[in-house]
Amino acid sequence: MADVIWCKKVVGGKPCNTVNYLDPYCFWNWEGKTNCAECGTVYYIYMIQGHMYRGPDEKPGEKPDMSPLYADKPLEGYTYYLPGVKGRTRPYECLPRHIYLGRADMVKFSIRGKPVRGWRPQPPSGGLAGQFPYKWDIKKLSPEVWAEYQEKRKKGEVKEW
Amino acid sequence: MAKDPRETRIEDLPGPKSPGELEEMKMPYEEYCRKAFDPGNEWAKPEALKGIRWLSCTMYIFTPHSAANLAELGADVIKIEIPRMGDAMRHTSPFNEAYLYPLHDTRPMTGTGFGFLNANSNERFLSMDYHIPEMVDVFYRLVKMSDGLTELYRPGTLDRWKMSYRYLQEMNPRFIYVWGGGFGYGPKVFGGSYDILGQAHAGLASITGMHEYMGGHPLKHSNWCIDWASGTMITHGILAAIHWRRKTGLGTMIEFSQVQTPTRISGYTFPLYGRFGIVRQRWGNWDTQLCVHGIILCGKSDFPDAQNPQDKFDARYVMVSAFNDPDFKELCDITGLKDFYGRYKAHKDRVDARPQVEIYTALEKWAADKTRTQVVKTLTDAGILAAPVMNDREVYECKHYRERGTLRWLDDPLYGDVLVASGHSVGMMTKTPRRTNWIWRPVGADNVGIYRDLLGIPLSKIEEWYNKAWI
Amino acid sequence: MANEKREVEIKSRADTLPLTSPEVRPWPVTPPPPPEEVTKVYEKRKAGEFGKWCEDNLRFEKGFGKAEALQGFKVLDIGLWRMGHKFASSLLGEAGAEVICIEPPGGDPLRKLTPFGREEYMLTDKETGEKCGLDFISEMINKYSITLNIETEEGQELFKELARHADVIVDGHLPGYMDSLGIGYRQISRFNPKAVYCWVGVRGSWGSYKDRVSKHGQWELDPFSQCTNAFVHNTGFPQDQLPRGKGGDPTRSGLWINDYVAGEQAAVNIQAALYWRDQFSGEGQFIEMTGAESYFDILDFDIAWYGFNASIKGRTGAWDPNLNQYEWNPCRDGYMMIGGQSDRLWYRIGMCIERDYPQFGRLIHEDPFLKEVGARNALHALIKTYTLTTRWLREINRIEAEQKLLDYEIAAGPILYTDEVAEFPHFKYRPWIYTTESDYGTILYGTNPNAFQVKTPHRLKWMGRALGKDNYLIYQRYSGLGPTKVDEFKEKGVI
User: What range does the domain containing A145 cover?
Assistant: First the structure.
């Protein structure tokens, strides 16, 4: 096994069965200790050109040098740990925002506070054979967003740039 | 000249001919530019490619961009997509986070991802499944009414459907036909291709990124640069063909392979290999031909307390350029690297590999206790060229681009408030400027506008086709 | 010749140089596949007839016998240091326009640049003995070379005479420099209102952050544009994949790519302006192109994403954040690129890999999160997919991986180095790499992708030009100056 550590450590009477993914650029040539995201077992590994040259060897009581970024549990419906779960996976720093969603962000207003059609579902607004007009009739189609927009305008939250 | 040589006419004299012209000639250069380009008032001026109609049977970025360039310059571009699914690029979004809704009316939960942006601006969107025999005739009707087409199918596919150049030129000899793909005729003719294949396969990746010595790997350009750049090369080919057609009345076919583009724009890389057998390697953030002309890491971030990780961790890089002798001397004086100037007085000496490593290492050491702003300020105050490596937020907030109108908010007719960096940014033109009217439209959003209003097909027929998913 | 045995003594690097010249080491090392082999490829997919039609009508070698699209258009190219204006005029020249490159009597400093300052990598003009750098030669395509000192009054008059004949003037000088000499667009349009005048620069000839020069007169060059339009910030390996300072930093392109992009878009805008002139108005116009801004247009959605929800794009190394799979990862002997995002291709990639590595199929295809095409672009989905893909790749080398994936009709290809590109069978067959016999000897170059056309293919006719080689021809023809007069001007430092 290499590049992933399929943790078989028996915890509480049953095997941990968590797959820890050792991402390629980071671990391609790497020596050190990493941990299982689920049970916290620390493993020593020595990887050369993606091959596990030594390990994984359990190192009870020692601290990991670097955690995996992601891990999941195939036998439990692929529940997973995202990057940056404290004590389990290492944080991913190079993100576009301080939060990470990994799914569609529902956006109703652009950063300057004007309406943008970035949320779902959208009410039907086309015509025959999928023809759309050259206008988003927001007042009619999404009156609640229009009302919210008027509120924002009053509060001065809508900017020009 | 006036008939009577004793008569003086203002037209014959050099210089301005009217008070208005005089005013213009006297204006400081920058003010003149601002007035001549007049950003924001593009719509008061004519469109360069008025009257050109182009069919875009395309997907992804590469071939669409060849047509979007035409649309930004004023051509009427009709984008033809597969019914319901549309262009595969509509389903791409950075980390799955940014979409505009809907894809079309029948899928209110599916959006079009930001990956689709900029590649299809100003176009009209038609859906058509043209390998249904009944639709081929409709396609031919469009061909007879258009100036040309860009397509990206596997070589031979449209030929099987009798929709390739050799068939279409018979019905429209003026037709300009572009096939865009990965490889074209030859042993790998059926090889599929993407931007990233162009970057990998044609040598661009092998010369981009940090050197192995610096711990690096071959690096992908952040954007789909080969798709985009190849699309533009096609537009260049199309426009040249249009010029030739003005003279001869004849179209042409262009077979364009995107994987080839990087080899054309790689400067000395291939000549160097051909003559000296030297395989160019990566040289990271430095320049192989100029020194000092590179990007250095500063010790401190400009915004250590920012919430956004990009601001917090990465506002630390500075572009420094001092390759001419006096500039290099100045740089050495300021950064306390005086002995470097002594050692590497001539550019020829300091641009060699080892001196480059020494110089940039020393510069980074000098910058280790400074922020990006401090470094830029110190160098700029000394009259040396330096610039911060800016992120998207800083570009957005940069006054320069805003006042030039190359970055602007668009009130998109269907999607609302969108920041656009396309169209207006691709050069300013005093008389026929480019423009962005809308970013994109849903799949088939102009079906009636084209099937009925252009081709005269009855609405009942259009509805029938739509229900059968032919369109 | 390859089998010939020679006595060679190598004492220094200099001794090796003659051993690498094209005469001794011809390109290609192995011949391209013969046409019969390629015919078989067409026929395998029942495209034999179409394939033959393509070969008959599109072949590169036939291009030299065909018409030139821009025949009759005259282009002046004036500027220093940068690639943008040079690339624009090269493209117009390859499409058939007549291009005259104007340099100061001392020559463009770019002629002196050479990788790592090594003079031995410069080429020597056979007639004049002048040395020239390869980067300059590579964009000195189909261009006449003349010299002119536009800082003298007589030089300015000569420039105006040339400008009278020009359809296009491409200006790669500092902002407002030509205007300050009385030969910018404002002045030229007075006597040649049909001229299309295009300035190509870094960030702008006007505005609060326009192109600067240093105190000592040094110019801003690419990658300044790459740094100030967020390209560099967004390119590179993240510090999460490689340590900062050891590869995990924002990184520039290996090329002056913003220059090239500005150049090609300049060629597009220039041609559009010519179309409008010839078709409608009879008027030329003024165009301004910048590397930083032309690149905005093609920087994907990056800047718009900030306007959407304040996301600031970060680096993702060799992985694309928008598609899965769409990346390269290390393999046994290098790096392997794999692409295929739609369900059809995604599962085909999976089938290919699980044949060797069954666990891949299980962990990827069973996972409910990875079933939806958009969801697969999430960061954690990339980490999982690429970790397992690399687990497969580590066992095989590039050529094996390519063959396996091509069997499943996946767009895949290894990262090739320059020598491998030059010898890649398809590239040699087309050819995308080709040689030209120049004044500097045989040069290997990348052919123009627009060279494959039925009627008007673009083409390279010559590459490189000694400084001022065409002074007598051009000044005779466009200014009526005989050789004696040209020599006089030369002595005065005007030409």
Answer: 107-154
